[in-house]
Design brief:
mainly beta, five-stranded antiparallel beta sheet, globular
Length: about 270
């Protein structure tokens, strides 16, 4: 199963070769030693962790991520004062505590590849695309309650060019300066991390912060400074760790804090571990 490269639709028929929404041919990315695409028949059953598997020392679990796009993991005591060994946890809490921090550096290999597959493996961890958003499609944008709020500049953006790995793409989206993009994602597995893959253009500086719901707490950051006139397309990722995904629905806010000429949005893909 592949995500449509034109409209981000996930075909209902796993054997489809053309998107039922827009008719675009579904072309598989060429595997290399750096990427690992999972077969369609891959087992998607999730094995939940046991209490014994997470009863180790908290400090062994919490690690600092060196990638600028993801904030360092907070000390567990700041999130919840109870011991990791507590037995009265919900399944989501148990799953979140057992979840390894996402290897954001390994996800960067997908920055220059198109199309994004429905299933893939990153650093030995299996991921599934749970949803896809086409910013330029009103129906798709409405499904995710996608909107730009309080921006100083909002313009329709067209992109045409190639990815660093050679895929040629033309697309429509938006670019905004100031304010934030707000969207709502449903159907999440609570207690599992979320990776947001945003199709964008390498045309300048992108600086943004990610918050959830009405909270002002920053859960992730976007930092990119790149101008590439030849291979302009990028898939930039934002990682939301498991402890921040505690319900099936998540309101995401991406605040522009100084981008120039702005933050660009075309297609957006959402991944959770299998």
């Amino acid at each position: 199963m592949w995500v449509c490269p034109a409209c981000a639709n996930i075909p209902a028929n796993p054997d489809a070769r053309f998107c039922e929404r827009c008719g675009t041919a579904l072309v598989e990315p060429q595997p290399s030693e750096e990427i690992e695409v999972l077969p369609d028949e891959f087992d998607t059953n999730l094995s939940l962790p046991t209490v014994a598997s997470i009863a180790g020392d908290v400090q062994d679990f919490m690690q600092t991520n060196e990638i600028g796009a993801v904030r360092p993991q907070l000390d567990y005591a700041e999130r919840e004062p109870q011991s990791v060994k507590a037995v009265n946890r919900s399944d989501a809490q148990m799953r979140a505590v057992a979840s390894e921090p996402v290897d954001a550096k390994a996800w960067k290999v997908w920055e220059g590849i198109h199309p994004m597959p429905g299933r893939l493996r990153v650093s030995g961890r299996d991921w599934r695309c749970i949803a896809g958003l086409d910013v330029a499609d009103p129906a798709s944008a409405a499904k995710f309650h996608f909107e730009v709020r309080d921006a100083e500049v909002v313009v329709r953006e067209s992109g045409e060019g190639t990815y660093p790995r050679g895929a040629k793409v033309a697309g429509r989206g938006i670019r905004h300066q100031g304010g934030c993009v707000a969207l709502t994602l449903d159907g999440l597995l609570p207690g599992a991390p979320l990776v947001i893959v945003r199709q964008c253009l390498a045309i300048g500086v992108e600086v943004a912060e990610v918050t959830l719901g009405e909270s002002d707490d920053v859960v992730a950051e976007i930092r990119a400074h790149e101008v590439d006139g030849e291979t302009v397309w990028r898939n930039r990722t934002v990682v939301i760790e498991a402890l921040d995904v505690m319900s099936p629905s998540l309101d995401v806010r991406v605040w522009d804090t100084g981008s120039n000429p702005g933050v660009t949005w075309f297609n957006v893909w959402f991944y959770q571990p299998v």
